[in-house]
Amino acid sequence: MASITLAELAEKLGAELHGDGTVAISSIAGMDKAADGQITFLSSSKYRKHLAQCQASAVMVKEADLAYCSGNALVVKDPYLGYALTAQLLDSTPRCATDIAPSAYVSPLATLGEGVSIGHNAVIEDGAELGANVQIGAGCFVGKNAKLGANTKLWANVSVYHGVQIGASCLVQSGTVIGSDGFGYANDKGRWIKIPQVGTVLIGDRVEIGACTTIDRGALDDTVISDGVIIDNLCQIAHNVEIGENTAIAGATVIAGSTKIGKHCVFGGACVVNGHIEIADGTTITGMGMVMRPITEPGMYSSGIPLQANREWRKTAARVMKIEDMHKRLKAVEKQLEDSE
C-alpha cells in the first residue's frame, strides 16, 4: 500500500480521529524527524513536550496526551502497538521471490500449493510440500518430505532439512538452518561415536526466526517451537528443546538440549540456558543471564556482574577468587563467637 488516508487508518486501527481525515499518510518516522505525509507516535508521556515542534501530518497518542497535540491525531490505547500495525499496513518490503525462477530445481515429487514463488537456485527435494502462497528466497534448500504451511516465507539461503515441519504464516530470515543434526555423541575410550539424530523439528504457526539462527533436530523425539514464538538472530536451539507459545528470545541466546521453556517467556540477549531443565510460563531472563537450574516460579531473573571500570572490575574479580578463603575465615569467627557465648 503506497499511502492511506487518516480516516482509513483510523478505521483499520479502531482509533478515534481528531482532525482532517483526508490527509494522506505514506510512511512512519520518529517524532524528531517526521515530516509532511508521515505519521509518528507518542508512546510515553515524558516526550509530550516535543509535540509542539513535531512536523508530522499526524500523531498517534493516548487519550491523556491528546490535549497537547496541535494538529491531526489518532487516539489509541497503545501508540506503540498502533505504530506496529501501521507499519504493517505501509510495509514496502519486497517479496522473497516472484513466480518460479528458471534456475530453481523443484522435484517432480514435490507438492506446490497455489501461488507458490521460488527464487533463483533454490532446491525443493522429493516429497516436500509447500502450502499456498509460500515464498522461497534465492538459494534456499528444502529437504525431502519437509512441509511448509501457507503464507510462510523463507528469505535467501535458508536451509530446511528433511522431515522438518513449519506451520503457516512463518517468517525465516537469511542464513538460518532448521533441522541440522543435534550434538549427539557417545564416547568410546576417547573416540567420539556419532548418534544419528532421527527426530525432526516441528514449528507452529506465526513463528519468526532471525538470520543465521540454528535449530537442531531431535535425537529421538522432536524439537518443538510452538505458535507465535519469535527468535532473534544468531541463536542456537539444541536438540529436543521445547519452547512454549509466544515466547521471545533475543539475539545470541544459546539453549542446550532437552530444555523445556514455558509460554510467554522472554529471554534477553546472549542468555545461556543449561540442558534438561524446565522454565515456568511467564519467566523473564534479563540479558546475559545464565540459567543453570530449573525455574518453577514465574518472574524476572538476572545473573552476572554488571560492567565496571577495569580497575574496579579487577578488584572485584580478585575478591571473588578469594571467596572460599573468606568463607572459611567467616565460619571460624562465627564459631569463636558461639564458643565465647
From TrEMBL:
Active-site residues, Swiss-Prot/TrEMBL: H239
Assigned EC number: 2.3.1.191
Keyword Lipid metabolism annotated: yes
Domain (UDP-3-O-[3-hydroxymyristoyl] glucosamine N-acyltransferase non-repeat region): residue spans on this chain: 23-89
Keywords assigned: Acyltransferase, Lipid A biosynthesis, Lipid biosynthesis, Lipid metabolism, Repeat, Transferase
Reaction(s) the record says it catalyses: a UDP-3-O-[(3R)-3-hydroxyacyl]-alpha-D-glucosamine + a (3R)-hydroxyacyl-[ACP] = a UDP-2-N,3-O-bis[(3R)-3-hydroxyacyl]-alpha-D-glucosamine + holo-[ACP] + H(+)
InterPro entries: Hexapep (IPR001451), Hexapep_transf_CS (IPR018357), LpxD (IPR007691), Trimer_LpxA-like_sf (IPR011004), UDP_GlcNAc_AcTrfase_non-rep (IPR020573)
Pathway the protein contributes to: Bacterial outer membrane biogenesis; LPS lipid A biosynthesis
PANTHER family: UDP-3-O-ACYLGLUCOSAMINE N-ACYLTRANSFERASE, UDP-3-O-ACYLGLUCOSAMINE N-ACYLTRANSFERASE 1, MITOCHONDRIAL-RELATED
Matching HAMAP family: LpxD
Function (record text): Catalyzes the N-acylation of UDP-3-O-acylglucosamine using 3-hydroxyacyl-ACP as the acyl donor. Is involved in the biosynthesis of lipid A, a phosphorylated glycolipid that anchors the lipopolysaccharide to the outer membrane of the cell.
Quaternary organization: Homotrimer.
Name the record gives this protein: UDP-3-O-acylglucosamine N-acyltransferase
Organism, scientific name: Enterovibrio gelatinilyticus
UniProt lineage: Bacteria, Pseudomonadati, Pseudomonadota, Gammaproteobacteria, Vibrionales
Gene: lpxD
